[in-house]
Amino acid sequence: MPNKFKTLLPPNAIPAERALEQATIEEVLSIPDLIRIVKNPALCPVELLPWLAWEFSVDTWNTDWTEEEKRAAIARAAYIHRHRGTRAAIEMSLSSSPFASDVIEWFEKTPRGEPYTFSLEVTQDDRPITLGDVQDLKSAVMKGKNLRSWFDVTFKGNLDGKAILAGYMIASESIQILQPFEFIGVHINGWMTSNFTPTTSFKGATYTLSVQGNFGLITWRADGPATVASDGTVTITGPGKVSIIATDAKGRELVHTINPRLYLIPTPERMYQVDMPAFLASNNGRWPHEKELSLKSNEFAPRGNGALWNEWGNMVVYGWLQDNTDRHLYVTDTPGRPNPESTRWAIILQYGRGKNLGLTNPDRYCTAAVIELESE
């Protein structure tokens, strides 16, 4: 029995079992012992390299690469993942490219470039650059760079020629790779959504637009009764449709529009029910309906489109009178329950709870004038 073969039979194995083992020794020893090398990029069998690349999370893989290029891509994967978001990771990602590349950050340029941008200068040499080459370069950079920074690519080619005098000619082409410029969400007083279509608005209502893919700084402007700050925060100043236009340094534009059908004006202070009709008339408004103020059934109800509280959240942030007591009940024109002839229904915005109020109740409460807007 060869020395390197170790039996797996127990000491009390019968002769027939040992004879069977002896008959299969050569077959067992002929099985390759891969367990020691299969995880090593330099020694792994070539047919298993794609699976090893998957295990090592290799970001860029090309089946047309040579065996040497595939092994090198797997070997540097761990370094790229440890240093992702840095210049070193970009340069390591680009090392598989057949083109020599230089990364030039914005502060290394003269004059300085746009903050948080960089350029990739690719030397073409004497081989053509295909669309596949461009995509490979883009993919390598995108996998290594941080999310904050944007880049452009310049291809440079050198040609040597002979004439009557020695000559030198340089040809170059430039391509910029830009991510899609798009809205990714709207922040409204503790709630974020990608589908903000409020039915209500009021003076002082605010929301912030978030975008991605912009090249350089964004210029914001408002069309309609609103203002917009440099961070994309919108403040409503009056009733009507509002469109916000975002423009990046490349001139690409995004437009976000809300078209609420109701504009609300709250009472500046608590007042008697008998004085509320005059307040509503002075603002050319009507009584609010219960479901226009809140769709909440309890304090844990989710935010969403459809009613004032659900869309804008805690109204104290905007200066409205609100707490969890009966002092700040908002009176509606919804009939009371179960005596609609002599009561009105009033609710606490924050909790969605309601209460019957007698029409002659002597205490002071809140309400809001509702102005119905025409859809544009």
From TrEMBL:
Under the heading SUPFAM superfamilies, the entry gives:
Invasin/intimin cell-adhesion fragments
Q: Where is the signal peptide?
A: none
Please identify the protein, giving its name as recorded. Phage tail protein I
Q: Which organism is it from?
A: Serratia marcescens
